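Annotated sample (chain length 472).
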Amino acid sequence: MGCFQSNSSQNLPPGPRTIPILGNLHIMDWKRPYKTMLKLSKEYGPVFRLQMGCQEMVVLTGYEMVKEALVNQAETFSDRPIIPIYNDYTKGVGIIFAHGENWRQMRQFSISALRDYGMGKRIVEDKISEECSVLIKTYETFEGKPFDPATILKAATANIIVSFLLGKRFEYEDATLLRLLEIIEETFHLLGTPTMLVYNVFPKLGFLLDAQRKIMNNRKESHEFIYTTFLENLKEFDENTERTLIDSFLVRQKRNMKSTDSYFHKENLICLVDNLFMAGMDATSNTLYWTLLLMMKYPEVQRKVQEEIAKEIGVRQPRTEDRVKMPYTNAVIHEIQRFADILPASLPHATTKDIIFKGFFIPKGMHIIPLLTSVLHDESQWEKPHEFYPEHFLDSEGKFVKKDAFMPFSAGQRVCVGLTLAKMELFLFFTNLLQRFTFQPPSGTSKDDLDLTPAIGLSTPPMPYETCAMLS
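Output written by the structure step:
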């Protein structure tokens, strides 16, 4: 889409003045563009336009605007824009950055396959509980000495999504798993760097930028791993006994062989597995990484959660059904997700047709930023939007309260496909860990020294830290 026509008679959203070639790039915080967007919304209102080079976008801020677009006008705001690095990475297939019918078919398939393999059911709960036991044993080996919990959390959450995709689990020190986790971490970090901002605005400069090369090398390596695994599955494949999401895909592929417009082809399978693995591991492990940091920072919250666990669960292993009788723990998990705000700018959307939105004309194909951080910190929706305050999700009697502005997984037609799985994982990992351990800063570090600044990247984990897992 070309630059906004300044002489257009249509009523376009307001926005800052642009300069030739750069558009509004000169006013952006390149490391955390969402911060500039929040500032601009105070000046130009909740719907405004921005220009990065010649790429225009419309930014939506605050709960009311984001809900109006993603929920009430879900179909119109359900597409993805063409963004150079994501286009290079996915080639328009898979699920996260796919368009039109390809996206619809892959989304439908993923949701039904994840359900078939037990998403939200007892069988998956058992897998998560087993993984929690392994995680606890691993943390016990540190004997209360300081360690960085990030990689082990990533390995544990990766194993849950791997069980759906490949029907197996990896040991935490498995070299293949560690390499895959390294690739994902590096890719997510690079996608949010200033270099990638430059590449997406001026793709012709790609040959000068090392980050784009690294991302594409990572893609090649992870896709080769998926392809090798897929070939192994193929050897044992029996369409009468589907064991994994890959098996289900192969059954559909066989069924649709004669169809010329089938979306069940090898490239879609590899990209779909890649998308689900990256998204399924990154969001949950980052949230859990924030969790342990926040428990060290707010020991009184940690203590209250442990008291509720002791009262409602005792020493047996936690189960998902415990959640309904644990309002405080449930509120803390929700508040961690709100406060951690791990996808502040969301993933970009695009319009499927011309629309008059809140009195403004937005053309078809427009790049839309539904600024999730502005929803999770909306001052009209949250009592203390910039503080960690579990009481956001409790009423005056201490009962759990749902909040419409709680949108960490986005909303509408592009809402996270693994939503049910992520909720189950967060509850079980959190309660299992806090039943067994109290997390404390290393000696010589006070809770006030703990840094809550998010790291730079497409998603925002906390800065690396160390914790001591003391037996409760």
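Annotation: The first helix runs from residue 33 to 44.
Annotation: The chain has a mean pLDDT of 92.
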